[in-house]
Structure formats: structure tokens, C-alpha cells
Amino acid sequence: MAAKKPKGGKASSLIPAKEVRAYVRAKAAIIAPADVEALVARRPEIRQRAAEAGEHPRLQRQVDLAISILGDHVSGESPQIPYFTISLLAVALFYFLDRADAIPDWIPRLGTSDDALVIELAFEMGAAGIHRYCDWKGLSTDGILPELRPAPRGRRK
């Protein structure tokens, strides 16, 4: 069942976010360290693809940060980042590299919208680990990642 297109008309709204989250979570559960290493070896290709996604500047910044996080993970420089975050980012980048995904990338102005959605949701789902990485590196998350909200406190009886 497809989601209704909102008044703003964003192409990424054609794909239900709930289904994308489920897809990303399922794929993240099967990402192995060797998959992450193979992805990091494709850094130049990933950067080139990001440069081609001119209509999505936030996506470009997120891809660059994801590559940095995965590269530092593979080199052993950031063992404090949860593997769940690493696997989420890896899934998002593998999806980004696939030009024949849900919305084929050759479609002008729409083709990378699904890629932007997958990366955005991976960043949202892995926000705690990404914030941890950015704090460690002294990087700003402004315009890249939602701010962490404190967990709601339950009432104690």
C-alpha cells in the first residue's frame, strides 16, 4: 500500500517511512564486518555518487559523515560507536549505491529521493551513535541529524 502524497509533494513520501525503517532494520541485522570493509573500499565511488546528487545537499553531507564513521570504524579508531549504528549506515550506503532501487536514479529530480529517505531514516535510527561519534570528533551535527531528545521519564509508584 503506497502512502498518500502530501501537499508539499516530496517524492520520498511516495514510499512509506514505516516500511523503509523495517527494510533498513532487517538489512542492518545481516551486515557483517567484511561488508563494511568492502563498502569503505568503495569510498571514491560513494563520494562521486554523492557529488552527483546536487538536488539533495543534506544527503551529500550525510553521506560524507557516514563514510567518515565507517572508515574510522574499519580502521579501529572509533570502537565506541555501536555496531548497530555502523550497520544502519552501511545499509543506507549500499542502497545509495544501487542505481536501480525503488525509484531509479536516472529519473530527473526524483531518482535520488528514495536514497535521501533511506539515508535520513538510517541517520534517525542511529542518531545516538552518530552523535557520540560527532562529539568524539568535535563535529557539528547541525543540519545533518536530529537533536537527541531525552527519554521520557515514567512515573514511579
Give an account of the 3D structure.
This protein has one domain. Helices cover 55% and strands 0% of the residues. The chain has seven helices and no strands. The protein has helices at 17-28, 33-40, 43-52, 57-74, 83-97, 113-125, 127-137. The longest helix has 18 residues, at 57-74.
Features:
157 residues, mainly alpha, globular
Distance between the termini: 43 Å
Gyration radius, rounded = 16 Å
Q: Please give the count of helices.
A: 7
- DSSP E strands, number: 0
Q: Please summarize the sheet with the most strands.
A: none
Q: Describe the global form.
A: globular
Give the number of domains: 1
Mean pLDDT: 80
What share of residues is helical?
Answer: 55-70%
Assign the structural class, choosing from mainly alpha, mainly beta, alpha/beta, alpha+beta, or little secondary structure. Answer: mainly alpha
Note the run of SSEs as H and E. HHHHHHH
Unreliable stretches (pLDDT < 50, length at least 5) are 1-12
What is the percentage of strand-forming residues? under 5%
